[in-house]
Design brief:
- The complex is a heterodimer of chains A (about 280) and B (about 290).
- Helix content of chain A is about 75%, strand content about 0%.
- Chain A is an all-alpha fold and about 280 residues long.
- With about 290 residues, chain B is mainly α.
- Classes of the chains: A mainly alpha (about 280), B mainly alpha (about 290).
């Protein structure tokens, strides 16, 4: 009796939760579906949900009309480049703060975090003018540098919280066995640090891919990543729903997939370890 | 344990990051402050001069500033209320036993990974458009007059779009916090005959308080800088109806080329963000034992 009540409750919860989940997901689902419709079907009233002639022509046309893959490639280079560059700078810093903490380590960490609190618009003009004078406006390299800098505090913090969980006794044991600093890093720390570095990398690629303040303000046609390219659809071109959907689907698909893998790290990374 | 040698090595390893962040923060910020005291317009080169607080006076007495300040507060407040209330409810729901919990969770967090320009454009055109949007279609199907969301209620529409993007973040963090709750405590309360409502208000909510504070502070930092959603949906209009501080500074400096006035606005934005940041930093710092 009690069991059937609880399994009925579970069934009810399941149906309710699925309905809410699909409702929240619906805009994404609708975008993906519309990308396979013809333009006429995309604005048909009443709209068809699944029973339409599925077509891939929007994907072909988006590429042909606007050189889509150039912007896609820009996004890949900018998000990967800024992440790798950030890791190269952050790993030594986080490593030393986690394993050789000094009196002021906490202050340094908090100060690094405070740079993340700076609203981008507060430094928009100087960065814009510096970029203009150095010829960095609308270049992929310039964006790699800016995105690396804005995400560097998050990278350092995330790595720090992971590194801190590596037990110090292991290091001491390695030192007792006569391992030098180099051997210590290669054989002991690296294998233990790799999962943390991988999750940091994943989260940072997502953040860089979706960044939409600097990418919109510092790029034009040439170096525009997908965020800026899609924004160009805000002109009347956005009324071509099927093509807008195809461009959008390709822009969000890779990150949706990466994001679903990084759910757990997301919480730790974005709350700077305040919630784990 | 740490020798002098390893300590200096540590300092060496940390210095590139410190120098870069110091440069990133100090150089542009001091330039912004410097420009804010200058008459400096890119369209009128060579007329730069020191004008004291005049830019601040113009910026702060401009009716647009007051409108933008109110819009910023409404935008941040509206999104916070929706995401916190919705996030607590969703976290409670996702914490219940059900089939396919993992899949529901994936569906719920998906909006967070959609880039801001895509979500703004999809909502603007495919859902909120008064002629061809899905909402208009549904309204017509029900025999109702389609509603022009971004024309009639522009700020509310932007709040809806931004809240949709941030709801997953709040949900995920609150769910993580909820799952760390000691289940024995809940069971004990249940045995003592505490109703679900009492259990929520007396055990769960106090436990979630800390996570809620973290969500509020972090979201506020990001929400003060909402930009792309406004740029691609309304361009700050109609009038100043959807202009927030960030957008106002952008428009003043990069559309009107008034570097001095824009810089003064930038400094104001930094001060506003700092007020929030101080509280956030204190919370995170308390949790950090080095």
């Amino acid at each position: 009796m009690a069991r059937s009540a609880s399994s009925r409750r579970k069934l009810g919860m399941t149906l309710f939760a699925w309905a809410i989940g699909i409702l929240i997901f619906f805009p994404v689902l609708w975008t993906v579906l519309t990308s396979f419709k013809t333009e006429a079907e995309a604005i048909a009233s009443p709209p068809s949900f699944l029973l339409f002639d599925w077509t891939l022509e929007n994907y072909v046309e988006v590429q042909e009309r606007s050189n889509y893959f150039r912007h896609f490639w820009n996004s890949v280079v900018i998000s990967l480049g800024s992440t790798v560059l950030g890791l190269v700078i952050a790993i030594p810093a986080a490593w030393s703060m986690a394993f050789v903490p000094a009196k002021r380590t906490k202050d340094v960490l908090m100060w690094m975090l405070s740079t993340k609190m700076l609203p981008p618009v507060g430094v928009l003009i100087p960065i814009y003018l510096i970029f203009r004078n150095l010829g960095l406006l609308d270049t992929v390299g310039g964006l790699v540098i800016v995105l690396m800098l804005i995400n560097l505090p998050i990278i350092i913090w995330m790595l720090f919280t992971y590194f801190r969980e590596i037990p110090g006794e292991i290091l001491e044991a390695a030192r007792m066995d006569g391992a030098g600093l180099k051997a210590e890093i290669i054989h002991v720390l690296t294998p233990m640090a790799v999962p943390g570095i991988a999750s940091t990398m994943l989260l940072n690629i997502i953040l860089a891919w979706n960044e939409a303040f600097w990418t919109l303000n510092l790029t034009a046609a040439k170096a525009a990543p997908l965020t800026a390219f899609i924004a160009s659809y805000s002109s009347p071109e956005g009324l071509f729903y099927a093509k807008l959907s195809a461009a959008s689907t390709m822009a969000i698909a890779p990150i949706l997939i990466l994001g679903w893998f990084s759910q757990k790290q997301l919480v730790r990374g974005l709350t700077f370890g305040a919630v784990k | 344990m740490a020798t002098a040698h390893s300590r200096s090595a540590a300092r060496l390893m940390i210095s590139p990051a410190v120098l870069l962040l110091l440069g990133w923060m100090a150089i542009p910020l001091s330039m912004t402050i410097y420009f804010s005291f200058q008459r400096y317009n890119l369209l009128m080169p060579g007329t730069n001069e020191f004008i004291g607080f005049l830019n601040y006076r113009f910026f702060l007495t401009d009716p647009a500033f007051f409108a933008a300040l109110i819009n910023t507060l409404v935008l941040v407040g509206g999104v916070l209320v929706i995401t916190i209330v919705g996030g607590v409810l969703l976290a409670l729901l996702l914490d219940q036993p059900m089939w396919g919990q993992g899949i529901v969770r994936i569906l719920v967090i998906a909006p967070f990974f959609v880039m801001p320009t895509v979500s703004a454009l999809v909502w603007k055109n495919m859902f909120m458009n008064p002629v061809n949007g899905l909402f208009a279609n549904i309204a017509k199907g029900l025999g109702l007059q389609p509603f022009d969301f971004l024309g009639q209620a522009p700020l509310a529409s932007i709040i809806l779009i931004v809240a949709w993007q941030w709801l997953p973040f709040a949900t995920l963090i609150l769910l993580t916090a909820l799952q760390s709750l000691d289940s024995e405590q809940l069971e004990a309360a249940e045995m003592d005959g505490a109703s679900p409502v009492r259990r929520f208000f007396h055990i769960m909510l106090p436990h979630l308080a800390r996570a809620i504070t973290v969500v509020v502070l972090i979201q506020t930092i990001f929400l003060l800088s909402v930009f792309a959603e406004i740029l691609v949906t309304t361009n700050g209009g109609p009038g100043y109806a959807t202009t927030n501080i960030t957008y106002l500074v952008y428009a003043q400096s990069l559309l009107q080329f008034d570097v001095g006035g824009g810089s003064a606005g930038g400094v104001v934005a930094v001060i506003l963000a700092n007020i929030v940041a101080i509280f956030l930093m204190r919370m995170i710092g308390k949790n950090l034992d080095v």
